[in-house]
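2024-03-11 09:14:02 INFO receiving multi-entity request
2024-03-11 09:14:02 INFO entity count = two
2024-03-11 09:14:03 INFO echoing inputs for audit
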Amino acid sequence: MTIQFNDETFKDDYTFKNSKEALARFPFPFHEDSYMYSVNLEPHVTSRPGSVYEMGFDVDEHYVSEMRDRAEVLAQDPLRSQSLPHMTLAGWDFLELVMENKSKDYPDLFELHKDGNKWRWINKPLGIDDTFTFLDETTLPYGPLEYIGRQTQGDHVLLDQREDNLWADAGIVTTQADWSLDFDIGMNFFQWHAPVPLAAELGVFKRALKFLMNIQLGAPARRLNWTMTVNPLLDTSPENYAEWGIQKTEITPETIGSKQHLRVELQTLWRLPRSNALVFPIRCYLASFEDIATVPKWGRRLHRVVRDIPDELATYKGFIDNKPLMLDFLSKFDDGLPTSDGIWPDIETEPPLQK
Amino acid sequence: MSNFEFPSSIVSRPVYGTFEARPGHSHLFIADAEGAAAILDFAGSNQSVMATSHIIYIPKDCGDKYVKQLEALNASQLYVGPTYPAAMSRINHVLANAHMGIQIYLSGTEGLMSETRTAAMAAGASLDSIQLEHRGSLSRRMQCVHCKGITEDVITDPYVCSHCGLNLFVRDHYSERLGVFQGVRVDAEDHGNVPDAVELYK
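2024-03-11 09:21:47 INFO inference complete, emitting structure
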């Protein structure tokens, strides 16, 4: 497998774009023509070669540029990476998990050589060749979570399991959908979800927590979540909202197709062997409305989802003000034809747009 | 304005109750302003506890209103200080030297309870040993999510960050670790368009 890595930005001049291949594997999050919260967790097993579900930790054409963006965010705000003192072992568990998965799944890009606790890690795309002692923090330039988090797409939160709850006690978070690690660190599952509307009343969190606490070693789980982002801005943090918030008001009928992005999170959950913690990778994928609309099924469906979503959810996800503009654009891609079940594009079998 | 019933919407906010007697080798009371009344009410039916009690009180705008009554409780130690920062080194010293079996009672504003609870947890106190009773002002202790500065005694929404000067709305999200609610720029999507401030819970 050879990946051609893009040289692109996720802020300022926003040169991010998806190749045709990247769009074809975009994890479109709607399996039917409407959306409501659900626990929607399924086993994170290898499926559909070429899709984002094929590997444990997906590496794609945005990898090198995303890691550069992360380094810039961390330089500007080091509080985006924090680990409470009792979480160091979980950090090592996570480092091992990523290194073993990536060297197995992408042997031409990553290599891990073990000699007892003396490990050599080679990351070719980022030009890293480090030798260190596993479980000895002094042999790495950062703590284990930050070290591997700077080389792994997606945000990563380590959840300690105790008192029948999960506690977000460590994380490296620079591509978040508007939540603050610095504020939420140390919170339990219900506390950090406190601002989410409707879901608690539906019992979603209680059921999800029960499921998560039962995740077993070697049997990770996954789900998709989504929101909307104007411009392909990875770092939609509350910290910087004072600056980026205004961008939400800067789309017009002419620019909405290229500027408005559907932001999808592939969330996975893995039990860690020594610490018994969970790691919660939250991987962000972006696609512009105009790119999504090139897939007839997705164009039809996205229009119907946005049209029918409850106002509370559109408000929480931050796009209620732009909803009319979105619908004007998306309605052009909805000819009223039925759509096939499931999230996949089904390009060969779904009819082209009839208008 | 005692015993205000807070709206139930905020899952992350601590639950405030009424002090109850719990067995302990020693008892630490930290209160500000109207929080003194919670100590007085408790001591009324638990006078024996006072012999092993340390009371730290910051009257704020209550002035001398409760000081004489607190003195009359004959606690083993009573400290009345001008501000929280002035009392902080004493509070931290007491918490650091506390033994297992100490009971901690925090009363008054949410800000006082938040800050002292955070300090107690940092000093190793277990949550089970800490009781909270809200009294008096409904002000909140707010952290600006942008500059991280903490503004005490916020009573309106929106409010002005006392550090960076941004106009912030009061988000119903509370961090136990930091002992603060979250403030977020209110005019981020329409610079300069700041709604009129309204009193919290009105």
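2024-03-11 09:21:48 INFO post-check: Strands of chain A lie at 42-43, 81-83, 110-115, 118-123, 128-133, 155-162, 165-172, 221-230, 260-271, 278-288.
2024-03-11 09:21:48 INFO post-check: Chain A has a mean pLDDT of 95.
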